[in-house]
């Protein structure tokens, strides 16, 4: 099942990311993963959080423009070749990646977590599941 | 059904309007000749005396007044009556650095308020309406003018003045305001705030808005109408000529009827001063034929627009002025190209952005730079970087085809551009020339 990533518009100037993290901190929202894409004058920060609903609301209240994007999350063994095996399946199923980012950690130190943005999350998820790679649910992500 | 405050005069046959103008102009020229030495001197320099003016057809013989004259004659030089006959002054915001102080007799104020009453009734107002005046009160003419007009119509008037947006909204909702008077940029901001508070157009009791004191585009009108669920009417005026109500829009929303029984309008070539035929675009010039305390003859407004006498579906016969493209004061000359902020606004709104923007003009290495800062909106944002960039590029191209020059567009965070409670500050010109 795809999970929800929050994408937030940020101006490319000092302090804007900090302003966002401050809002999240004040509302006790825990980030699981973060990635930043930037251009000359603006950026998009993409985050995976424990409480999507609350995070979206507090960001909106603080005048941030944010949108929700479905992404696929996988846990892979934290060992050489771990990501490679997963990507083999992507290649064989001809799933095209728009972007991806990784995070480690949580209580389970044996795994790394990968977030993928693909054009059609639903069909990619089904194809990968058939190859034994099951995408994490929102609940599983929250519990990491 | 169209409503009129003074149907007899608002719908009078053209010949009657002309006769009124002829008669009043002759009197006014004599009044000025006898009582305003500053203008008399200008007439003498041009070799004109009141005897040369036989009707409004001779208007062109008279000298112009401009903002420079107001500055030179400040404060009493253009006064037409003894100070003891004046009951009030109003003054401009001085945004362009030249503060104007205008004087009024009681009769001048009554006529001005009648003009505003005409505007309110043209927007459908009656004594059953609740009219909230959110223009600034005080020296600015917006608040006092519409306040007086609203009284004359018999509306329940809520004199909120500008500012304190949440209190404005409380009054709109609790007292069921039906007519809102303020600047268009403040109306847009009120709409934005009301949407945030969860009020949709169907929940809002407003039915009409009378918005003026700054240039605004058709696109902005449609936006405000949609958000607030109203019909938005334009109103025009200058402190020099009284204030709002010199002209106003009717239900046809196709230009503003100039109150021709009080003002004679001309369109001139701004470079040569020559009077242009009807339908030409040029600078708007007004002669106030009733005002006694501050009698402006052929006052150059610097507003660029067009007049039409084509029949209007509302039944009014007074000439209409099309929405000014902008005051020539607002016009920027960037790399030799004339740019009006309203043109930039049109492009932004057409492409789906909101009217929250700022224009910054600067000069680098002897070349003018034009920066347009636009707030990102939820509608225009997507997680796809390429898509956001493509939309930005489309905006740059849209501006280029509208203005004929390249602007640097910066997308900025929501609410990062300061909201105005009165006239919006759209332009920051940093050039030191």
Question: How would you describe this protein?
Answer:
- The complex is a heterodimer of chains A (144) and B (433).
- By secondary structure, chain A is of the alpha+beta class.
- Chain A folds into two domains: 3-69, VC0802-like (2-Layer Sandwich); 71-143, VC0802-like (2-Layer Sandwich), CATH 3.30.2130.
- Helix content of chain A is 33%, strand content 37%.
- Chain A has five helices and six strands.
- Chain A has helices spanning 16-26, 52-61, 82-92, 121-130, 138-143; strands at 3-11, 31-38, 42-49, 66-77, 97-104, 111-118.
- In chain A, strands 2-3-1-4-6-5 form a six-stranded antiparallel sheet, with helices on both faces.
- The radius of gyration of chain B is 22 Å and the shape is globular.
- The mean pLDDT of chain B is 92.
- Chain B is α/β, with parallel strands linked by helices and 433 residues long.
- Chain B has helices at residues 7-10, 14-35, 37-46, 67-73, 106-122, 142-153, 165-174, 184-196, 218-228, 341-350, 385-403; strands at 88-91, 101-104, 130-133, 156-158, 179-182, 208-212, 231-237, 244-249, 256-258, 263-268, 281-288, 299-308, 320-321, 332-334, 337-339, 357-364, 367-375, 408-412, 427-429.
- In chain B, a hairpin with a 6-residue loop joins β7 and β8 (244-249).
- In chain B, α2 packs across α3 (37-46).
- The chains are: A alpha+beta (144), B alpha/beta (433).
- The interface between A and B is medium-sized, with 20 and 17 residues.
């Amino acid at each position: 099942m795809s999970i929800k990533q929050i994408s937030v518009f940020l101006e490319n100037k000092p302090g804007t990311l900090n302003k966002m993290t401050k809002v999240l901190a004040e509302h006790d929202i825990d980030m699981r993963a973060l990635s930043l894409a930037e251009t000359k004058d603006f950026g998009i920060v993409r985050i995976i959080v424990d409480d999507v609903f609350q995070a979206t609301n507090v960001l909106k209240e603080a005048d941030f423009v944010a949108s929700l994007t479905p992404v696929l999350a996988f846990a892979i063994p934290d060992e050489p070749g771990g990501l490679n095996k997963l990507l083999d399946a992507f290649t064989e199923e001809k799933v095209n990646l728009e972007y991806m980012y990784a995070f480690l950690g949580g209580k389970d130190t044996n795994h790394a977590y990968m977030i993928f943005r693909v054009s059609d999350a639903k069909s990619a998820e089904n194809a990968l599941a058939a190859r034994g790679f099951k995408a994490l649910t929102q609940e599983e992500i929250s519990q990491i | 059904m169209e409503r009129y405050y003074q149907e007899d005069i608002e719908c009078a046959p053209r010949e009657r309007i002309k006769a009124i103008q002829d008669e009043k102009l002759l009197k006014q020229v004599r009044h000025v000749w006898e009582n305003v030495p500053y203008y008399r001197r200008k007439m003498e320099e041009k070799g004109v005396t009141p005897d040369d003016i036989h009707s409004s057809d001779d208007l062109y013989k008279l000298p112009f007044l401009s903002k420079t004259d107001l500055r030179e004659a400040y404060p009493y030089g253009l006064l037409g009556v003894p100070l003891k006959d004046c009951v009030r002054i109003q003054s401009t915001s001085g945004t362009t650095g030249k503060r104007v102080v205008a004087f009024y007799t009681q009769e001048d104020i009554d006529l001005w308020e009648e003009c505003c009453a005409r505007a309110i009734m043209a927007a459908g107002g009656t004594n059953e309406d609740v009219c909230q005046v959110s223009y600034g009160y005080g020296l600015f003419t917006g608040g006092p003018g519409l306040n007086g007009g609203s009284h004359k119509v018999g509306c329940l008037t809520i004199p909120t003045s500008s500012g304190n947006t949440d209190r404005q909204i409380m009054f709109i909702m609790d007292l069921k305001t039906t007519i809102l008077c303020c600047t268009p940029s403040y109306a847009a901001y009120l709409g934005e705030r009301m949407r945030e508070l969860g009020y949709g157009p169907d929940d809002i009791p407003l039915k009409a808005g009378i918005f003026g004191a700054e240039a605004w585009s058709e696109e902005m009108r449609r936006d405000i109408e949609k958000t607030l669920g109203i019909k938005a009417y334009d109103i025009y005026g200058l402190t020099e000529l009284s204030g709002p109500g010199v002209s106003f829009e009717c239900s046809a929303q196709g230009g503003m009827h100039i109150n021709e029984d009080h003002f004679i309008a001309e369109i001139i070539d701004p470079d040569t001063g020559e009077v242009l035929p009807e339908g030409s675009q040029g600078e708007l010039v007004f002669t106030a034929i009733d005002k006694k305390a501050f009698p402006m003859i052929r006052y150059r407004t610097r507003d660029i627009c067009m007049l039409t006498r084509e029949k209007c579906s509302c039944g009014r016969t007074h000439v209409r002025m099309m929405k000014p493209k902008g005051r020539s004061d607002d016009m920027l000359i960037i790399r030799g190209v004339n740019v009006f902020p309203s043109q930039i606004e049109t492009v932004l709104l057409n492409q789906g952005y909101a009217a929250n923007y700022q224009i910054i003009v600067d000069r680098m290495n002897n070349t003018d730079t034009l920066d347009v800062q636009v707030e990102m909106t939820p509608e225009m944002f997507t997680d796809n970087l390429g898509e956001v960039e493509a939309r930005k590029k489309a905006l740059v191209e849209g501006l280029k085809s509208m203005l004929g020059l390249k602007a640097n567009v910066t997308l900025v965070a929501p609410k990062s551009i300061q909201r105005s409670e009165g006239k919006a500050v759209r332009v920051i010109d940093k050039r030191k020339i």
